[in-house]
Amino acid sequence: MAGSYPTEAGGQKSQSILIVEDDPGVTGFLEEMLQAAGFRVLVAPDGESAVETLKAEGSSVACIILDYETPGMHAIRALTCFRQINPDVKIILSSGYSEEDISPNVTASKIDGFIAKPYDLRAFLSQMAEILSAK
Hints:
The structure is a single chain. The chain has 135 residues and is of the alpha/beta class. The protein has one domain: 3-Layer(aba) Sandwich (Rossmann fold), CATH 3.40.50.2300. The chain is built from five helices and five strands. A five-stranded parallel sheet has the order 2-1-3-4-5, sandwiched between helices. Helix 2 packs parallel to helix 3 (75-85). It starts with 15 loop residues before the first strand and ends with a helix.
């Protein structure tokens, strides 16, 4: 069903998105949606794997979608590592909690966006486009 997704995000084949999510259902949904929008998708089930993936992929990763509650390395620690590896990478924090509930914990970590679960497809792609086009 890849053709049924809107492509507001304006994905480029050269842009890679790293999904950091331990739920296979959520990962599968995001992966399919982002590939349909034209992105190259990388997946990591936890913060440690994501850090290694970002080290290996370098600046080809345009954006990281980071689940707030991945196992192992906490999201705040992962954010710090991501910024050390690639200060320019865009980071979208994702959570079932509201942004207000978690924002005191991540304000200093400089995320580029927040998206609440469950995902609204159009809002998600629109936010991706906005974040990726920001300098």
